[in-house]
Amino acid sequence: MSELSMESRIGEAAAFIAEKTGDSPEIGLILGSGLGALAEAMNDVRVLRYADIPHFPVSTVEGHAGELLIGTIGGRRSVLMKGRFHLYEGYASSTVAFPVRVMKRLGVRTLLVTNAAGGVNPSFCPGDLMLIRDHLNLMGRNPLIGPNEAAFGVRFPDMSEPYAAKLRDVARAVAEEQGLAQQEGVYAGMLGPSYETPAEIRMLRALGADAVGMSTVPEVIAARHAGIEVLGISCITNMAAGILDQPLSHQEVVETAERVKGSFLHFVSALIPRL
Amino acid sequence: MELTYLDRIKQAADYIRGRIGERKPAVGLVLGSGLGDLAEEIENAVAIDFADVPHFPVSTVEGHAGRFVVGTLEGKQVIVMQGRFHYYEGYSMRQVVMPVYVMRRLGAASLIVTNAAGGMNRAFRPGDLMLICDHINLTGDHPLIGPNEPELGPRFPDMSEAYSKSYRELAHRLSSQIRGDDGDSLELQEGVYCGISGPSYMTPAELTMLARIGGDAVGMSTVAEVIAARHCGMSVLGISCITDMAIGDELEPLTHEQVVEVANRTKPKFTALVRSFVREAEF
């Protein structure tokens, strides 16, 4: 059996999803720690397990749902990834990009990506939302390495506006209407999975980062390559190493995400119809 | 069925346990370039070649013997790595750090890690020793990528104090009493170690960049080992021997032989510092 090309695998996965759901979503949602509950705000939902979709990567982490939800949020046809792929889990960055490309094939034109991030900018506080203005790819990986998938985009994609200015304007307006304090800044994508050292955080600050995390960047590169517009929002779940005199823990990340979940969900739900 | 990483660590530790009898190491030492001779000073020693340990790769770099020596140093039970696995040799990060987990499994709750490094801080001189207060991982890789083994440590380990503050304070106190064969007292610097993959040395432009982002020394080891040590809850002391100056706009050609020469010259003070730390620290 000859190996299928990336394009064929993506095509088969998308065709399967379209056939099972009879829908063509226009908005893609990849949600970080704590925001999975947005799935409950979805109407007319059809659920596909990653494992049932041809060629779709499968989460190796126990307890991760690994489901693709297709339905409507605020009247907009959406596809939501419940369960995300991280480089630190051992996936290739092309694997992390795969679902984004499937979304493109399904008709997605706008991607909303959220994450939990550490605050590098000392004026941030845990619980703040940060509109991602730009990113630094410090992962040492790029999802587009290898032969270019010309069916999706160009060999050398432009990154001068990875996060669409007009979508950021919309997000700012929604936040204002809701009286939500919102920061804006640069997200540094690190490989992880250890949290950064204080010296690494000082480096990131010198390089111009405001927040740091272990996701988002490969997804956004793949989306921009495919011509999908992106809105990115970080939930600052903790202050990065060396800012406060205390160790970092995943528990703190989870607790903060849980604490702000309500307002974050409220915000995102109001945002989606206006994208 | 294929063995997991954890299985392989356990089998390696079991093999060593079978060879070391009643010895129960409390502290692990990783000896970098030039410091390997300290392994000859271990009393009641058992030496185990890395090549004999199940699932261990074989060290290839010149000047590195590649074995564990288990025994007593300054009255403390130690396990010493004479030689280490470097990422630039082509080993995976998991292979590089496997001995750390094995030492932890054998009972070592502390790790003393040493290396030869280039000095980027203008206040340093070749032959200085630098306590590592923190590191920057610039290897482009990470030893914990892949499924986490919860029995080894947490998925997202904290690195806010990778190098124990109390160990650093003790090392500073001890250093003031150390004099070399030349009668000069030990100059103990402190700084941030940048871990790069190598094996090429850095270009002047790269060194300028590393200095700008906060690095004081640069080398091709240590960072992955320390991440693994912190992952499995070990307390770490890190010491770099500054074997050459690595300042971007003053860079001169460098050979491995020069590095070894300075490392050898610094050895008496370095050995004295490590020995006094092993003697005075509580493990």
Task: Name its key features.
heterodimer, A: 275 residues, alpha/beta, Rossmann fold, five-stranded mixed beta barrel, 6 helices, globular, B: 283 residues, five-stranded mixed β-barrel, 9 strands, 24% strand
Describe the structure.
The complex is a heterodimer of chains A (275) and B (283). Chain A is built from six helices and nine strands. In chain A, a hairpin with a 2-residue loop joins strand 3 (67-73) and strand 4 (76-82). In chain A, helix 1 packs across helix 2 (93-106). Chain A has a single domain (6-274), classed as Rossmann fold. Chain A has 275 residues and is an alpha/beta fold. The mean pLDDT of chain A is 92. Chain A has a five-stranded mixed beta barrel. By secondary structure, chain B is of the alpha/beta class. Chain B has a single domain, classed as 3-Layer(aba) Sandwich (Rossmann fold), CATH 3.40.50.1580. Chain B has helices at residues 5-20, 93-105, 165-175, 204-212, 223-231, 256-280, and strands at 27-31, 43-49, 67-73, 76-82, 110-119, 129-138, 188-196, 217-219, 235-245. Chain B has a five-stranded mixed β-barrel, surrounded by four helices. The longest helix of chain B has 25 residues, at 256-280. Classes of the chains: A alpha/beta (275), B alpha/beta (283).
